[in-house]
Amino acid sequence: MITGVANGEAAITPTMAARLLKGVASHAADPAGGEQALTERETDVLRLVARGKSNPQIAQDLSITVNTVKVHLRNILAKLRLENRTQVATYAIQSGLVSPPNITQSGDTKSSP
Description:
The chain is mostly helical. The protein is built from six helices and two strands; from the N terminus they run H-H-H-H-H-H-E-E. The protein has a domain at 40-99: Winged helix-like DNA-binding domain superfamily/Winged helix DNA-binding domain (Arc Repressor Mutant, subunit A, Orthogonal Bundle). A two-stranded antiparallel ribbon has the order 1-2. A hairpin with a 5-residue loop joins strand 1 and strand 2 (109-110). It starts with a helix and ends with a strand.
């Protein structure tokens, strides 16, 4: 291994290699990516994010603090392995949790009933 590192190769033990391969194999066997179930409140927050609401608006709608909204949003991102609000909104629409907005010819959006 020392010779390999000296030649610019990565230092990885057989144990580390086995763990890495096991992780890759388990991810390949689980195409959903191991998503964890959201709580009811996290689902509420997800729906409101998908509708374009800001954290203060979500807090007001759900009668919780902005910090609590942020905690729920962090949990959603972690559980669904997403990186930002746009991905959360896309996930909510693709999962059928919210209807996509109607786009008018002028580019304005109208909420679906």
